[in-house]
Amino acid sequence: MQKSNSGNVFEFILEHVNIVDLISNYIQVERAGKNYKALCPFHNEKTASFIVSEEKQLYHCFGCGAAGNAINFVMSYENLDYIDAVEFLADKYNLDISGFSGKNDRNNTGQLTKYYDILKDAAIYYYKNLRQNESALNYLNRRGISYETIKKFGLGFSNDAWRNLLDKLKNKYSISELEAVGLCLPNKDGTSHYDRFRNRIMFPIINPKGKIVGFGGRVMDDSLPKYLNSPETDVFNKSRTLYGLNLAKNVLNQKKQLIIAEGYMDVITLHTNGFENAVATLGTALTSDHARLMKRYADEVVLCYDSDFAGQKAALRSLDILHGIIEKVKVVVLGENLDPDDFLKKYGSEAFKEKVETALTGTEFKLNHLKQGYNLNDESSKIEFLSKAVSVISEIENNFEKNLHIERLGELLGVNTEMIAQEVFKGQYKKEIKYGFNDKNKSVQIPKVSHEKKKYLENQLIAYYIHNHQTVSDTQKKLIQSFHFSHEMQPVFDYIFDYFKTKETFSKQDIIENADLDISKMLIEVLDDYSGDTDEIDIELIMHNIIIISLDDEIETLKLKLKDASNAQELFKVIQDKMRLKQDLTMKMRHRKFKN
């Protein structure tokens, strides 16, 4: 029997998992100096900015900011919570963590394994019930669900009884464990428990790892609530779970497209009709966690909600959630207030396929929905619509797409497209370039030097030193090298100084790949602030300011020592010398500024 271990299970996992080995199972990594580099799996990029440090057992992306250890990587890539990520790594590397115990069940990963076992046993029980219940089988048959589909989705049935499941499982599991996974509830006075799901078609909710995490139950009549879902538990998070993803992920090899529906029956009907890339949220609105989960599997998401008012509002909300996470998003408009299940039964799979192929882009859907609320024959209404439409178009990142919608909006309203373009592009608008299509970055505005912020001065100095290393004089280099930088920036400058001992030209990629992660992060921050535009930096002025600040620090330190010093007269002379030096430098700076 495994002995209980009071240590930290997370530290145990990190000690036994090499982050380079782990990440190389997901993406291609290659050695780059003391680190490893790769294309970031969390955002689209062409140049590798994802760095893995074997020494520190950490990763960091200088493009999107993703960072962390092995557990964090699995959480982000597999869309798991912290506990599930630990269990995932333990399974993957054959690490026995059953002896670890925590202050509560959530910290006991051995207990989570039992929860999965309970839910699996419950699913088998419900499945057997369905096979023996004629009315439930007839209901599913009327809905067009075959025996093969029942097996594929593991559908079941909960009897119309108060304690059937409890009586079945109570000898194997405790009541508290059954309650913890949402299968039973206590009565009002807490003296007994009863089954949560009664007289319902049961839909097991299965995560991408193939483990049952909860259930959805649907009535077969008009009673309410129509659907009842498992509550949030230690193994079930509605905001991070998609129904049907365990099946859909297996068909995304050629076309990485997911269809998002609203309910269990929609997903099952879509799969039955050949659209096996369909998934659904679970009684909750689409969340950013859902979006990140979908990004792992798909490049394109097609929203296919009910065509009623509520469904279209949900589509609009989902577009906002998906923006910036999923690059390509489209919306299917079925019409006639139909949901996917109804549409497929009425028109068939070919008609639905055409709907998907001609789905609207997110912007098209937003503009079409917006247009419905305005009478475009009325001038004041047209102006209000135009103002809001311009706001929608302005959110588009791709300038080609912006121009396309500017043209369409101009044709629709009979408005000069140049006027629309001016409103869409604002400060980027160029009359000589059609509709302001100008990708040239604005020059970075470097603010006036602050005499109080040493770090800001150091950032400017380092940025200048990097971008103008070949033109910095030997005298300036020696002076800069003699500076006492702040505790945070000293290792950064030391790295840059050593870098130019062997390199003549600067490479941002070299720094990212070869520097310590902490140094790399600070360097990238400095470089991003100035983006190569250091023409406005007065290097002499910067150095003078840094020297003056250093002198101020030294003078204050000496004054404190002066009170109790046995050599007070000698210290006082040193202070006077430093004050005169500061005064001389200040006068030089004023003279320089006056000349300029």
TrEMBL record:
Ubl conjugation is among the record's keywords: no
Assigned keywords, A-Z: DNA replication, DNA-binding, DNA-directed RNA polymerase, Magnesium, Metal-binding, Nucleotidyltransferase, Primosome, Transcription, Transferase, Zinc, Zinc-finger
PANTHER family for the chain: DNA PRIMASE
Subunit structure: Monomer. Interacts with DnaB.
HAMAP family reported for this sequence: DNA_primase_DnaG (MF_00974)
Protein role: RNA polymerase that catalyzes the synthesis of short RNA molecules used as primers for DNA polymerase during DNA replication.
UniProt cofactor(s): Zn(2+)
Source species: Fusibacter tunisiensis
InterPro entries assigned to the protein according to its UniProt record, in alphabetical order: DNA_primase_core_N_sf, DNA_primase_DnaB-bd, DNA_primase_DnaG, DNA_primase_Znf_CHC2, DnaG_bac, DNAG_N, DnaG_primase, TOPRIM_DnaG_bac
Keyword Glycosyltransferase: no
The protein, known as: DNA primase
GO MF annotations, alphabetized: nucleotidyltransferase activity
Free-text note on domains in this protein's UniProt record: Contains an N-terminal zinc-binding domain, a central core domain that contains the primase activity, and a C-terminal DnaB-binding domain.
Cofactor mode of binding and number, as noted: Binds 1 zinc ion per monomer.
Domain Toprim: 256-337
Annotated catalysed reactions: ssDNA + n NTP = ssDNA/pppN(pN)n-1 hybrid + (n-1) diphosphate
Zn finger (CHC2-type) location: 40-64
Annotated Pfam families: DnaB_bind, DNAG_N, Toprim_2, Zn_ribbon_DnaG
